[in-house]
Amino acid sequence: MQRRRSLPVLTASTAIGLGLALALSACSGAEDPGPSGSATATRSASATPDPSGTAAAPSGDGKPSTPSTPSDDQTGPVDDGTGPGTGNGSGVDQPESVDFGLVTEQGVAAAGGGTVVSVVGAGDNWTVVVAGPDGSQTQSVVSATLGRVTSGPFPKDADEATKAANVARAAAVRIDAVAAADRALGAVAGSSLTSLVLGGSGQAPVWTATVTAGGTTSTVTVDAVTGTTSAS
Q1: Can you tell me the distance from the alpha carbon of 156 to that of 198, in angstroms, rounded to the nearest whole number?
Q2: Which residue of 62, 107, 117, 149 has the fewest C-beta atoms within 10 A of its own C-beta?
Q3: CA separation for the pair 170, 184 (Å, rounded)
Q4: What residue ranges do the domains of the chain occupy?
């Protein structure tokens, strides 16, 4: 009888031991290893949207390339050619012709009004000096190609005697700078103007022009009242 009662006790102990072993095995196998750092980085990069709304084309190494940004801004206002500037920008050094009407107009506008008393230059760049109502002088550089001031306006020194002479001559002038330039160029065939300066007195103002033709420089005087010319 003792032998029959000990058999169930041993069987129950064995069953308990097996159950614990199975439970421990199940607990250790339930742990799921987390994703590696590289996998997480890959998913994060692929999930980030392109802020431009345009998919970037992959480069040769399989990585997405960054869209290029234009090097210059084409969205700014268009230059209407009426305001002061700094530099030529036209790319033209020797225009086929010079419109002295436009050149002097821009110089007078930059000075805020007045009378042109000299125009000096060559090619595209012309320095225009304008005498104001009080005889003070303002200087600007005008591009013949762009038709606008590219440097200035700047005040130009003038003593009291020069200011008084400017006022007197400006009041007496009947042939302005544009008309004087035309007459000077007409006096020497095929010539180009390099300078035009108003001088003389208030009673007898005179334009003195320097022109060149075929390598020869000539001086042409133009009476600022009658328009009479004389070349030498």
Answers
A1: 15
A2: 62
A3: 19
A4: 100-231
